[in-house]
Design a protein that fits this description.
The chain is built from three helices and 14 strands. By secondary structure, it is mainly beta.
Length: about 180
Amino acid sequence: MTLIVALVAMVGCFQEEKQGTRMRIALYSQNVTTDPILKTTHDIEAYAFFVGKNTKWEVATWEDALNRVITNVDNANLTLSQPDVIGDYDPSAEYQLSLELWSQYTFIVVVDKTNRVYATRFYETPVNLPEVMVQLHLYAHKKSGSANGWNTTNPFPDEDREPLVPEEETGDVTE
């Protein structure tokens, strides 16, 4: 009898591993430093390419970000232009972006078309984790940088930006 109990208990140890997850991304924006940090309701697009573990990719230009083109860092002649996944965007949702990632290694691109900034990240997709929730801050007034696994790029860092919220609504007083 104890052998049967032991065998039944071991069945749970041999569950089938499933590669893939749904990445849900909460997006936040700030146009100028005096703006409050707000949930993004801009024109956003996200896409992902399934890539190899030891390959390095980048978005070379703003036009490439818009046209869904990534370039291999080690060989600039190698580009990909047909994403494996296009994200779903719902500006009213708590996590506005959703991407179905089922490859072990993924290169993700999120483009804020309104503020002309984008973010990229190489992502190792977890096994047996149906959903991952992350945040991404795309600040139009900041220069390019890295945070929380994302590399943000602002191709137009010196561009004049309008506040998202007029000063009367933020309570700020300028003299």
